[in-house]
Design a protein that fits this description.
Elements lengths: L1 H52 L11 H20 L3 H15 L11 H14 L5 H15 L5 H53 L7 H19 L4 H8 L3 H25 L5 E2 L2 E2 H10 L4 H19 L3 H19 L1
Antiparallel strand pairs: 1-2
Helix pairs in contact: 1-2, 1-3, 2-3, 4-5, 4-6, 5-6, 6-7, 7-9, 7-11, 9-10, 9-11, 10-11
Length: about 350
């Protein structure tokens, strides 16, 4: 007994150690991936500055060599810190610092190219599908300075710097939007498929365990709600109003409403409030058949009706409006007769 206990205790330690090592390995890989992305971004910022400084210019348009050296030295410092960074937050902050330094490329643009560069950047922003007011406002604010850039290069470069900064802000926002929506879409898809499979499983065993009919209806409704959310993702311009920040709360609320709608609607249809029939079969009849047996093809078809109706109700809870009007109308009619 002592030997077995000793052996068992000895085996627990490597398992725990392997688990910790695996977790540390995942964190290390994630950190290195973030480091590679940050270093790539910083390198891109350096190239942006260097390529702008290398553009040919007229003899009277001197390059600010001192500013160029300061910017490049700062980018070198940021790159060195990124190589030694130990946290993702630190890498993110360094990446943002690199982006800010990259904006100084505007101050190395040749005077005779400032206007074209500014209008091209605004056109690019407009092509990203951002709200039309954003590029319109940029043109109103900086068109005059861009037009007079050859005569007043300093003001033109200031305008170009602001345009570059606006472009970078939109890039970051669009990246955040796409990342957030992509994550929601992925998980909602997985959840909707899993819930539908669980609903089918619950309905299959419902003849043996009758109470499973309720989870089947709820899961089908939840699946329909998730699909509804996927089809109504907020657009880019709608996200600017703060909708993106509160989206997780709205998703939960929408799924909750879909669940309630599917259960209430299924109950009313099962009760026979509305004599809706599909191929001469009412929902109540299909529900009774599915709860009794799924051993033949006709019963399976009726089971599909049982799954389809709550999914539709979860997808669009507006169907409950017709139920409400029907019930209230009948109540009012009964009251008048009395």
């Amino acid at each position: 007994m002592l030997r077995r206990s000793t052996t068992k205790g000895w085996m627990h330690k490597p398992v725990a150690k392997l688990g910790n090592e695996s977790k540390m390995s995942r964190q290390a890989r994630k950190l290195e991936k973030t480091r590679i992305e940050a270093l790539s971004s910083i390198t891109g910022d350096r190239m942006r500055v260097e390529l702008m400084a290398q553009r040919p210019r007229t003899d009277d348009d001197k390059l600010d060599a001192a500013l160029l050296k300061t910017v490049l030295d700062r980018l070198t410092e940021i790159e060195a810190k990124a190589k030694d960074a130990t946290t993702e937050d630190e890498l993110s902050a360094l990446e943002e610092d690199g982006e800010l330094q990259g904006l100084f490329a505007a101050y190395f643009c040749p005077a005779n190219q400032i206007s074209a560069e500014g209008h091209i950047e605004i056109d690019n922003i407009e092509g990203w599908g951002v709200p039309k007011t954003a590029p319109k406002k940029l043109r109103e604010l900086f068109s005059k300075k861009l037009q007079n850039a050859s005569e007043n290069p300093h003001e033109g470069r200031e305008a170009l710097y602001s345009i570059f900064a606006e472009g970078d802000s939109w890039k970051d926002f669009i990246d955040d939007y796409e990342g957030t929506m992509g994550t929601y879409m992925f998980w909602l898809f997985i959840i909707s498929v899993c819930m539908l499979l669980l609903a089918i499983t619950a309905l299959y065993f419902a003849p043996k365990l009758y109470f499973l009919i309720f989870p089947a209806l709820l899961l089908a409704g939840a699946s329909g709600s998730c699909i509804s959310v996927m089809g109504k993702m907020p657009a880019l311009d709608a996200s600017l109003s703060g909708e993106l920040n509160a989206y997780s709360r709205r998703v939960l609320a929408r799924i909750g409403v879909g669940l309630a709608a599917s259960l209430i609607g299924s109950g009313l249809l099962g009760w026979g409030v509305l004599p809706i029939s599909i191929q001469n079969q009412t929902f109540s009849e299909a529900l009774n058949v599915s709860s009794a047996s799924l051993t033949n093809g006709a019963a399976v078809v009726k089971a599909l009706i049982v799954l389809t109706v709550p999914m539709l109700l979860g997808f669009s809870e507006r169907a409950l409006t017709s139920f409400e009007n029907r019930i209230l109308g009948e109540l009012h009619s009964s009251a008048k007769k009395r």
